[in-house]
Amino acid sequence: MTYIAKPKFRHPDLEPNARGFTRRDYEGKVSTLCAGCGHDSISAAIIQAVYELDLEPHRIAKMSGIGCSSKTPDYFLGASHGFNSVHGRMPSVLTGANLANRDLIYMGVSGDGDSASIGLGQFAHSIRRGVNMVYIVENNGVYGLTKGQFSATSDKGSKSKRGVVNHDAPIDMVGLALQLGATYVARSFSGDKAQLVPLIKGAILHHGAAFIDCISPCVAFNNHDGSTKSYDYVREHNEAVNRLDVITGRAPIKLDQEPGTLALVQQHDGSTLRLRKIHADYDPGDRLEAMSYLAQRAAEGEIVTGLLYVDPEAQDHHDYLGTVATPLNQLQSEDLIPSASALDKINESLR
Amino acid sequence: MPDSVTRDASAKTDPSQTQAATVVNDFVVKFANVNGSGSASANGLFAKSILRMGVPIAARNIFPSNIQGLPTWYEVRVSEAGWLGRRGGVDLMVAMNPQTWAEDVRAIEPGFYLFHDTTKPLPPSMARDDIRVIGAPLTRICNETYSDPRQRQLFKNIMYVGALAALLGVPDTVVEQLLKEEFAAKPKLIDANLNAFHLGRDYADKNIAPIHLRLRASDKIGDRIFVEGNSACALGAVYGGATVCAWYPITPSTSLAEAFADHCKKLRTDPETKKAKYAIVQAEDEIASIGIVIGAGWNGARAFTCTSGPGVSLMQEFIGLSYFAEIPAVIFDVQRGGPSTGMPTRTQQSDLLSAAYASHGDTKHPMLFPCDPAECFEMGAQAFDLADRLQTTIFVMLDLDIGMNEWLCAPFKWDDKKTLDRGKVMTREELEAGRDFGRYLDVDGDGIAYRTYPGTHPSKGAYFTRGTSRDRYARYSEEGSVYVDNMQRLLRKFDTAKSLVPAPIRRDATRRTPYGVIYFGSTTPAMHEALDALERQGRHLNALRIRGFPFSDEVFEFIRAHEQVFVVEQNRDAQLRTLLINEGGIHPTRLTPVLHYDGTPITARFITAEIAGQMKSIETMPTPEKAQ
Fold first, then answer.
1. What is the pTM of this model?
2. How much is the ipTM here?
C-alpha cells in the first residue's frame, strides 16, 4: 500500500478509447509489491481490459479483503471507489455493495489465503447467490504478506522456501466455483496476458457470478523448484483449452474462417464471446463435462486454463430477489417511506 | 432471586372456609403448556379478549429452546391500573403440563386457584391446602367429541379458554368477534372453534362454583395497540428507509427479519412492476450479515442486521471497520441470556458492554434503548438517520422480553413531512463546482466528514476505503500524528452523537429526596410500578430512564444531584453502571446496583424489595457523627 501517486504527465500520443480515456486514466498508485510479482501483471491486465471495453472508471467499484492481492486495487483504476475490507470477507461486502447499486460493475480481487482459507465460506456463498461480479483470485499458493506460509491452494507435497512439506490436500477454486453454480468460470496465468485480458473482459460483461482463478507466482516465497505455482511449473504444465476474444455489442462480429474450431457465445448484454477452441471436443457450455475434464487433466498434473464454463443466459442475485430496476441507493424518501395513513391501518389491525 | 414480597391480598386465610372479596381486573393468570401443542393461539385468544373488554394486560411467553415437547408458559397479567411489568406470583394457574406440576402449583399465591384437567385425579403429593383447586375433564370431553387426534389436542386448548371465560366473565360476543377476525379466510374454523369454546364454557357454568377473580368491562385501553417489539423495530426500519437487510437466524431476533419481510411485501412492493424496493438476504452467518450491511452502507443504501449476543460477538471485527472506516450500519441486538449459548430463550440486558465497545482497538458505538414496541418503532426508524448522520454503527438494544412478547403500547406515529436525513454526502454537482473533498476532513468541527457514494463523478471524489490508518484525504499513512489526528476527530464525532441520540426521561418524586434511580429498556414498566409502591411506603426516588448512549450531560448531572443512585438492570455484572462509571468518571460508591438476571423479566416486587431493603440499610447505617 502506498501513497505515492503516479506522475500525471503523459505522452501526448497516448491513444484515447471511445470514451476519451487513455490507458493512463485507468491506472492507480505505484505498486508496492515485489518486483516481478504476478499480481502486478494482473493489475495491468485489468487496466487493459477496462480500457478496451471503454468503461468509465467511476462506474466500477473495486473490492478486496486483506493480503498482497487485496492491496492491488490501490494500483489500478485510481478514479474508481475502492474498498479494502476485512480478511476473507470481501465477498459479503461486495454482495452488500451490489445490492445497494446494481448499476455499477463490481470487481472483487482476492487471494488464495483470503478466499480459500479464511474466506472460503464467503467465497462459496457469494458464488451460489449469483452476485453479479468479477471475482478474481490471484492464486500463488502462499501467504506473502506474512512471509511464506502455505495457503489452502498449496499442492500436497509442495515444498515451502523454508523446506517444509505441505501435507494438506489442495482446494481447487475452479472446481468449487463450478460445483457452486458460478455462471462464468475461467482459469488463467498472470504471465499470459493475451489469454487473461479477454477472460477479464468476458467476465466484466457477464451478467452473473464470474470467477477467474489466476495463477500468479510469488517471486519472493513460491517461485522455487518444487513449487507447483512457479513461473516455470505453470509454463510447462499449462494446458489451454481455448483462446477467447470478446466482442462488445458495438463492434461488428467477424466470423472466423475455420468454423470447426470456433464457438460463438452471445451474452446477455449483447456482447459476444468468440472462443477459438484448441481442444475441439471441449464444450464450455456443459458444467458436468467441465468438472470431469478438469479432474482428468489435474490427475495428469496439468493446469487447464481458458474459459472453462459459461452460461450466457445466467441470472444474478437481483433477478432472484426481484428488486426494482432503480438502484436501491437512489430511491428517495417518497419511494421508501409509507404514509402515516398506512401506519394508522397497521395500528388498527393491532387492536 | 425470589419475588419475596407477598401480596397484601384479602385471601390469606383458609380458602375453604372464607368467602374472599372479589378481585376485579387485577390478577395474574398463567398457562402451563407443552410446546408444540397448539396452546399459543388459544392463550392469545384469551389475552386479546381481555383487551377487547377495555382492560389492560401484560402478556409474556416463557418458552424453552425447543420445538416440541418441552414446558412452555404464557402469563397474562390483568391490571386495571395499567401496570405492564411482571408482578410476580400467580392467581390462577392453568396447569396443563404434568411435567411442571410441582413448580406450577408452588407458584400460586395463597388463597388463589389451580385449574387443571380433571380427567385424571390430582396427584396427592401435589396438593396444597392453602389454594383452591378447580378444573374440567378436558381430555374426556375432547375424546368424546372429536375423533381426530390433532383436533382433540387443539380444541382442548380452546375449551379451557371457554371455561375461563365463564369463570372470569368474558362475554361470548368478544370471543366470537375475535374468532371471526382470526379466521376470516377460513370460515369453517370459526364454528369449530366456537363449538369447543362453548363446550368449555358450558361445563364451567354447570359444574364449577364461582371464583373471586372477575373481569369487568372497562375503558383503559384507549387507542393503544398490542404488538411485539421485533415487529415494531422492523416496521421502524421500513419507515426509516432501510432497503437492505442481511441476517442470520438466531433467537430472539429471527422474527424481526421475518417481520421486515412481511412489512416490505405489503409496503415496499412497486404497485406497477411488482418489484421489490428492498433486498433481504439470509446470509451464511453473522459475519457475512454485517459484511453485507457494511457493503450496502458504503454504497449509500440504508442497511441493517438483527441478531443477539452471540451474533454481536461474531461481528466484532466488522464493527471496528465500520467505526474506523466510518460506514453507516444498524444492528438490532435483541438481547438474551448469555454468555455462550446461555439461555437462548430467556431475557437479559447483558450485551451493553460488548456492544458499546465492540471490536479491538479503541472503539465506541452509539446505542438506543427502546422501552416498549412504540419506541422500537420510533428508534428503529431513527437509527438509520443517526447511522447516516454519524457514519458509524448504531445499535438498537432491545431484549427478548420486548422483542418477542406482545406489549400494550401507544400507537405508532409518523409525520408525513419527515424525510430521510442522509447525512453529509457530497454530490456530483458540488464536486463539479470544485468543492474540496477530503473523506476524513472535519470541515464543520463536529467530527463528521463528507463522504461520496461510489459512481458519483467521472474524475472527482473517488477514494479508497480501508481499515488502515490514512490522512484527511484518505491517503494511506502510518504517521503517528496523522493517526492521532484521526482518532481525536472520531472522539469529537462521538461527542456530537451525545446530542443526537434520544435524551433521557426524568420522573421526579412527589417530595425532595437524596435518592435517585436509573433504569432503561424493558425494566421500565416494572420500575414505574415499583416507584409507585415505594412511594406508598414513603420511600421517594427521582427516576431517570436512559434512552441513548453516549450519555448526555443530563445523566451525569442527575447522578451528581443525588447522594445515592440505584442502577436497575437485567444482568449480573451491572453493565450500565460500569458504563456510567467509565464514561462519566463517577465514583463507584455513588451507584448502587440492583440486578435481576435469572432470565425471567424483572418484576415490580423484586425492584421494590431490593430498593426498600437497600434504603433501609443505608438509613440505619451510623453516620460518622453518631459513630463517635
1. 0.95
2. 0.95
